Amino acid sequence: MAPTASLAQQAPAPHSGAPLARRAATALAAALVLAAAPAAYAAAPGSPSAAAKKLPDGLYGAKDPQYDGVWRQSLALLAQHTVGVRPAASSVRWLVGQQCADGAFTAFRAEPGKPCDAKAMRDTNQTAAAVQALAALGGHGDAVDKAVGWLKSVQNDDGSWSSMPGSPGDANSTSVVIGALAAAGQKPASVTSKKHKTPYDGLLTFRLGCAGKEEAHGAFTFQLKGAAPNADATAAAATGALGKGFVVAPAGPRAHPPVTPPACKDGKDKKAGPVSAAQAADGGAAYLVAQLDKNGQHLLSAMPGAEPQPDVGNTADAVVALAAGGHGAEARRPLAWLQKNAANWARQSGPAAYAQLVLAAHATGSDPRSFGGTDLVTALNATGPEPAAVSGKHAKDADASAKDDGGGIPWWIIGVGLAFGAGLGFLLSGRKRDRL
Fold first, then answer.
1. Whole-model pTM above 0.90?
2. Are 267 and 252 spatial neighbours (Cβ–Cβ below 8 Å)?
3. Which residues partner with 371 through β-bridges?
4. pLDDT class for 261, splitting at 50, 70, 90?
5. How far apart are CA 382 and CA 220, in angstroms?
6. Is the peptide bond before 315 cis (omega within 30 degrees of 0)?
7. Distance CA 103, CA 145 (A)
8. CA-to-CA separations, 111 to 45, 179, 225, in angstroms, rounded
9. Can you say whether the dihedral through the CA atoms of 103, 104, 105, 106 is positive or negative?
């Protein structure tokens, strides 16, 4: 899951020109914790959030929201709603109050009462995430309609979206906008650019298909420039190509189509005629399954000078992507890995990470309240204001594990913190680095 439009330009970093992952903010949150950043809200002098003395009322998480405030809030509210938790009114008000008059959302507005000017970093990822959350919660039709209108106004000519309007499109941003359109009751295929291209047309431009090595067949790239297979982009695109967003309903007992890689010959598709979005999604699922099988049922991320390490967030997204295609058995294998390995990551990363795991559990028909020994719902609730209502027997205090000091953190999570010291820029750019 994925911000943001403007991280590269907001954060001073050696690699700030590199493309950013939709979920870079989650990695940033984890790094801030593990690098011994203060738990209290603190911002660099001169940053948009520096004037604040404490976290805004209603906001989820305890870290600086400058780069991911709307993103993490949206995922938290959406995950709560999905499992029958009614969020606190203050948390919903905070999210609605972040919207600009033109319908767009930025990552964070320290002064919501101040109009967004031309310098405000309007962000399609944050906006699309907010649309999915507010549409699910209901009662915010005007805010959703304005946000959708803004998203349509910044669609690229090829049908895609970039995180920052006016930039070349990318698979991740296009996918999250498709999810927002669907959540708002729109038919993504009917949303066309000035050159009559649909979001699916734009998304499939990032499909590598039969290009490159056989093990990469079916993959998507993040952007066309420097195209190479990218697991993060593939997980997003395999979901978006099916017209689905963050919330994927569990597949029915009969919905278990085989995962089918594209039929290739001499580096090209053997199939006559254009490849459909559904076929592209299935090819992406096959690529993800191959990578998961290769790596022990998790995806990998690499940091400069370090060995590849498990990428928990991307693995959770792969579970959702596989479930979206009805590949329940294939989705449950990486889900089992998450149940054994994801609790400390979520504890260190915060509300968006808990939300990702809740949504992965939901997509597979698993119980997020009993996730490898962790009650994800209670832990997520504990990162924000007390919910207005929690269903039935699950109305209880936060799980004690959500409050501990993170003892027993695996080496690969500690490595994220060490990498932070070597350069924040990689954490903000690395998740979209090309990798098999």
1. no
2. no
3. 374
4. confident
5. 36
6. no
7. 8
8. 16, 28, 37
9. negative
Give the separation between CA 79 and CA 284, rounded to whole angstroms: 25
DSSP classification of residue 215: G
Contact criterion met (CB below 8 Å) for 62 and 24 = no
Residue 7 has pLDDT above 70, yes or no: no
Give the residues across from 85 on adjacent strands. Answer: 390
Residue 18 exposed, middle or buried by CB count within 10 Å (0-12, 13-18, 19+): middle
What is the distance between the alpha carbons of residues 224 and 129, in angstroms, rounded to a whole number? Answer: 24
Q: Which residue's structure tokens are 């738990």?
A: 39
Cβ neighbours, 10 Å, residue 274: 11
Q: Are 24 and 429 in contact (CB under 8 A)?
A: yes
Give me 261's structure tokens: 């890689």
Q: Please state the φ and ψ torsions of residue 274, each to the nearest 5 degrees.
A: -70, 150
203-194-172 Cα angle (round to 5): 20
pLDDT tens string 196-231 = 999 999 999 999 989 888 889 999 999 998 789 999
Distance CA 250, CA 365 (A): 5
pLDDT in tens, 283-307: 999 999 999 999 999 999 866 666 8
Please name the residue that has the structure tokens 């919330």.
Answer: 247
Q: Which residue's entry shows tokens 């294998």? A: 333
Q: Are strands 299-301 and 268-269 parallel, antiparallel or unpaired?
A: unpaired
Residue 98, burial from CB neighbour count under 10 angstroms (0-12, 13-18, 19+):
buried
Residue 105: DSSP 8-state: B
> Is there a contact between 218 and 278 (Cβ–Cβ < 8 Å)?
no
What is the DSSP code string of 27-88?
HHHHHHHHTT--SS----TTSTTTT-SSPPTT--SSS--TTTHHHHHHHHHHHHHHTTEE--
Report the 10 Å Cβ neighbour count for 342. Answer: 27
Question: Residue 182 has which token pair?
Answer: 């669907």
Query: Across the strands, what pairs with 309?
Result: 301
pLDDT at site 414: 42
**Residues paired with residue 301 on neighbouring β-strands, in sequence order:** 309
The residue count for the chain? 436
Task: Summarize pLDDT for 341-379 with one digit per residue, the tens.
Answer: 999 999 999 999 999 999 999 999 999 999 999 999 999
